[in-house]
């Protein structure tokens, strides 16, 4: 078991081969660089270690799973209970049956796109445009540039709260736009994707075009969390935000990006409260202006900081 300070919660947790860390500073691992600590951060050694932990952890202890923190807002009061963050033990990637890619949940989406390119497989280049890991793509049906995870997924492997391993087909995932209908207690550990033989030069050109488009239209070098709101039916969130006059609007050090107004930015020193308040102000203004209610795409977890200690 990894090192952690003795806390009452730590004493109640089962032994693991991975690492347990008390009061882990989550702001250090989120793209926004805001938020309070995890009461306990668990980094399992592998899927077996994860399954053993979930099988034996007491039912009243909350368990929250995060990835690389790209599409995540951790509130300033932190996250009670155990936060699970998959690491190296879930970073494998391999080509199977010549046209399929198997990837662990901690593998960055871009790495899947690159592996497909190296193998001459078309159909997976859209992963280059998703800032996150495969686990997140599975959980939210991540997509970009006209394709979604559901279009290429063969099966997903997960561990449930009882510690049992489940293999889910794409139908089992019950996907819709930026939504997965699979049970919330599942921790995804691996995915198998279907590509197709393609021309390497064409695939490389598609990858280059996606890279250039992202850099030209999105604030990729800023402290941001990616697309903030889901696109409404028959519309684009950024257009509604722009039309409502919210481009460049700010709350504290949190600002609506001038470059792409469906992105919120921490310009330096913002709190999670600043960012969430800004997001709600955007939603209210868009509703007032166009009658459309924008739904959050960014996942928000944790509790507010009532005493301002983490502000």
SSE blueprint and pairings:
Elements: H1 8-12, E1 19-25, E2 37-43, H2 47-56, E3 63-66, E4 72-74, E5 79-85, E6 93-96, E7 100-104, H3 109-118, E8 121-122, H4 134-140, E9 143-144, E10 147-148, E11 153-159, E12 165-169, E13 187-194, E14 196-197, H5 200-217, E15 223-224, H6 237-243, E16 250-251, E17 254-256, E18 264-266, H7 272-290, E19 299-301
Parallel strand pairs: 2-5, 3-5, 4-19
Antiparallel strand pairs: 1-2, 6-7, 7-13, 8-14, 9-10, 11-12, 11-13, 15-18, 16-17, 17-18
Helix pairs in contact: 3-5
CATH architecture call of the largest domain: 2-Layer Sandwich
Care to count the β-strands? 19
CATH class placement of the largest domain? Alpha Beta
- List segments where confidence is low: pLDDT < 50 over at least 5 consecutive residues: 1-5
Mean pLDDT figure: 94
Major beta-sheet overview: 5 strands, antiparallel
What is the general shape? globular
How big is the Rg? 20 Å
Structural class by sheet pairing and helices: alpha+beta
